[in-house]
Amino acid sequence: MGDNRKAMYEGWRKNGAHSREWQAIVEDFLKQAFKVARGPVTLCSCLDCKNGSYKTRHVMEEHLCRFGFMPDYLVWHKHGEQARRRISEPAQQNRDGMMMDMLNDLAMGFEFDPEEYNQPPPEVQEFYRLLEASDEKLHDHTEKTVLDTVLRLMAIKSKHNISNSCFNDITKTGLGMKYEKIDVCPSNCMLFWREDDKLSTCRHCGKSRYIQVKNEAGENVDTTVSAKQLWYMPIISRLKRLFLSMKIAKSMRWHKERRRGSQSEDVMVHPADGDAWKALDEFDPKFARDPRSVRLGLATDGFTTFSTSASPYSCWPVFIMPYNLPPEMVLKDEFIFLALIIPGPEHPVKNLNVFLRPLIEELKQLWTAVKAYDSYAKKEFNLRATYL
Ligand SMILES: [Zn+2]
Ligand SMILES: [Zn+2]
Prior knowledge:
Elements: H1 7-10, H2 20-36, E1 41-43, E2 54-56, H3 57-67, H4 89-109, H5 122-138, H6 146-158, H7 165-169, E3 180-184, E4 191-192, E5 210-214, E6 220-226, E7 229-232, H8 236-242, H9 246-251, H10 254-257, H11 275-283, H12 285-289, E8 294-300, H13 306-309, E9 315-322, H14 327-330, E10 337-343, H15 352-368, E11 370-374, E12 379-383, E13 385-387
Parallel strand pairs: 8-13
Antiparallel strand pairs: 1-2, 3-4, 3-7, 5-6, 7-10, 8-9, 9-10, 11-12
Bound molecules: zinc ion (2 copies).
């Protein structure tokens, strides 16, 4: 990327008499964009589309001529380029500050000392490897870091409406956070997942799984671009990771061991005081006996604000929170896990069960138990969890 990219904006003329440099850049841009595109369409970067809709090469060229480039698109990061330069200084500085805060939080949380053990469990080693990797990149301002991505995910919580491009922005996994993109029927009837993974049309409404474009004969043809996608970030690995920190592993027992006798009976200060908690204790005493059994809260941002802040490109994050932690920790960002990003624009609540399927599959596993390592007790245990 050279300074000649300025011509993207300086070379465009309202009357269509664009400069030669501008034309050369558009040619470069289209070549680059369609080199990395997965099909005959890609995001259009014109002032009208603003990387918000997919167009064919021909239409994109027309749009760019007619409207010019969208502002601040000197780095073509939606079209295969890494951000190599600070585009907006104040925003970048703000982000760096927030990232430092997050790193400090992480450092405080993870006091596990691998030298205590001759051979730390593989998960512990993997965690440290990831932590190091994210740290390294943090000091290199030249490309998106893992932490940057985590931060973006966190920002979703404070913002109810996010452009569709948020899905494309999340290009990396954060601190070992794996994610899965699952195609959804455009009408939210079903997921193209597991036994339905090979289908190309919806079993219920027959709509195509893929974006369609018209060919020269005017017929609709499938592209390889999915019409709608659900983002799913598995929670088991993250729950296990909580127990890798001695401090957090200890805090996960708080609801049972430390709080006893500290509050008067009739004041509800923690979900452990609630009826749902007590009912679960009675339902499964074995689950209740281990203080490490995790009780999860499920939160869906944006549902209530839909009517006032509806935008055509919104998405709906679903969060999971371990309620075992003491009140001062339970609502901290790092203990609120983003589990799903449900694509908009429709209110997802009608079809919520469709979208929750992958999460429910994991919860079934967690109800039976998964192997985890407890850094506080310094041994493996059977981790169980359920939601209240
Ligand atoms: Zn356009
Ligand atoms: Zn359908």
